[in-house]
Amino acid sequence: MSIKLPISKSIANRILLLQAIHGDPLMRVSSDMPDDVHILHDALEALRQHRNGEPLTLWLGNCGTALRFLQVHIAKCYPNEPITLTGDPRLMERDGAPTSQTTSARILHGENIPVVPDESPYITMSRRLANNYQSSKTKLIAPLRQRIINHQLETDWSSAAFWYEYVAIHGGELLLEGLKADSLQGDRIVADIYARHFGVETKFVPEGAKIFKSSNLQIFKSLSIDFSHCPDLYPAIALTCERLGIKLEASGTERLRYKESDRLEAVRFHEVRNDHRMAMALMAADFIHPFPATTAADQATLECIKKSYPRFAEILQSITTVERRSADGQPTVNAKVVTGSISHITPIRGVNDDNLGKKHALSKLIHAATSEYVWLHDDDVVLPKAVNVQSDKVQCTKADLIILPLKMERESDNPSLLERLQIAEYAAIQELTMRTAKQNQAIMCSGANLIVRREVWLACESDLHPEIPSGDDMFLLEAAKRRGYKISVMDEPDYTAIVRPLTSWRAFLRQRMRWAGKAPHYTDRDIRRYGMIITLANIAQLLCPPILLIKFPIEYSLIRAREKTCTVHHTPYTKKPRTPWYVALLLEILYPIYMLVAFFGGLVRTNRW
């Protein structure tokens, strides 16, 4: 998707001040420009119309740049005039110590300030703009000079940081219009930081910069970044680290306490505090959802981002509002969190609080959980007996992801043939799941019953393929294995959850096609190897039916072993858990047929709920 960015208010405000200093017409300020640009523009126009000796009060909102620039400008151009600068209470609280903005204003006014080592990028920007402006003034006629000066306006790298944050956390690919590799802006470094630490790559094209999440991502448990020359990037980067479970050691953040808010505290407590960068960083990271604005606080949040990026909330809403539906066509999913030593997160079918789908709801709730581990359940399972599992037992595994068992049980005393076949198939699948996991070759897991360390889920979130409605469990398994996390099983009756068979062949085949449709996205060696073995064995059976005599005893032994392990008594229908041999044999005969139908159907069918 193509994203329109605002102009850089740092460049725009420096050009405005240069135009005022040199007596040139101020550039036109359009409605979609940041509020800070409007504030400085209006203040400079008011100064031009000011009559000597008349009192003048200039209201600057919460614009620190306007405050610093005008303090210098008034002292140099309007000395001893009764001019008062005022604004929001937060602006008036800012300390009076010189900043890079103060130095920039002096440079724009022509002061010869020596270059110092490790100079702020904002001061370097001011030097280049001042030199360019002076050169054009002496060599060019006014209209051409104005055109060249306006051409120096760039789209804003500081605002782009929130889209880098979004892609790092949620994945996907965005085209950020107008960004240039050769930029005056110091916050251009955001592309390098996100490539190095978060795997978000940047490819410059004529239209701007394409950003996307790289598949070759080295995960850092912690990282250290000096924000001395890029303080505006701190909220986006700090919240990215929090979402991905990365410990951030930040230096050069001393002056963040004197921004539109105390940004160190605002990040810590996830508070907007009428700060445009905090609002956008929290929105991109999914900590807050102020659109549509239903409260005064929501409205205030959307209002404050106009300071630098008026259309941010509108664009963010447009790229995240993608409704996905469950197998029965109903909107999915909200979820609940029971806090404590282990958070139980259970998607609830038919309730979707923001129309963003199951994966989004699951992500939001895991981020909201406060425990070390989260226990995932699908909405339609019967929870296991050990629903109040002791944390000590989970801690003893020292595992990052724990695969828990599932059992399929029929709904009635007279199950249909389809239900019987599914129960038998599920038992074989579950037994294979548990055996391979115990041998450190896990090939399957199910979000219907799964315990995962919260920080591991957050670290793997970007690899869960948000473009595919389902499969977050299998993609989680792949990502955890790829990153070297410890995977364990807890194959005990008390931890077994109950799932129900589907009641129609159409729903059954659609489910299998959906499963098969994810197969091309699997990259794990074990998953691919077992999948290939099973596929070739079933093709061989179709070509040479006597192979059934070899396959059947193996499959039936898996079914019987799983039924023996899962001695669960959640419902009255477990009195006769044994699958008759003739049902298992029929399954063995039919399985290759519907497996191949599902496989090829899944490859050509759009992968959707």
Describe this structure in words.
- The protein is an alpha/beta fold.
- The protein has 23 helices and 16 strands.
- The protein has a six-stranded mixed sheet, sandwiched between helices. A four-stranded mixed sheet has the order 1-4-6-5. The protein has a two-stranded parallel sheet with strand order 2-3.
- Helix 15 links the parallel strand 10 and strand 11.
- The longest helix is centred in the last third of the chain and has 24 residues.
- 42% of the residues are buried.
- About 6% of the residues have low confidence.
Question: What is the overall number of helices?
Answer: 23
State the secondary-structure class: alpha/beta
**Quaternary form:** single chain
End-to-end separation:
23 Å
What's the Cα radius of gyration?
30 Å
Proportion in helices: 40-55%
Q: Mean pLDDT across all residues, rounded?
A: 83
Give the neighbour order of strands across the main sheet.
9-10-11-14-12-15
In terms of per-residue confidence, which ranges show pLDDT below 50 for 5 or more consecutive residues?
321-340, 348-355, 568-575
Shape: elongated
Q: Estimate what percentage of residues fall within beta strands.
A: 5-15%
The largest β sheet comes out as: 6 strands, mixed
Strand element count: 16
Task: Spell out the blueprint of helices and strands.
Blueprint: E1 2-3, H1 9-21, H2 35-48, E2 56-59, H3 64-77, E3 83-86, H4 89-93, H5 100-108, H6 121-139, H7 142-151, H8 157-170, E4 173-177, H9 190-198, E5 200-205, E6 208-213, E7 222-226, H10 234-244, E8 247-251, H11 263-269, H12 276-284, H13 296-304, H14 312-320, E9 334-338, E10 342-348, H15 358-368, E11 373-377, H16 391-397, E12 401-403, E13 406-408, H17 417-438, E14 449-453, H18 454-460, H19 472-482, E15 487-489, E16 497-499, H20 505-517, H21 525-543, H22 548-565, H23 581-604
Helix pairs in contact: 1-2, 1-3, 1-6, 3-5, 5-6, 6-7, 8-9, 8-10, 8-12, 17-22, 17-23, 20-23, 21-23, 22-23
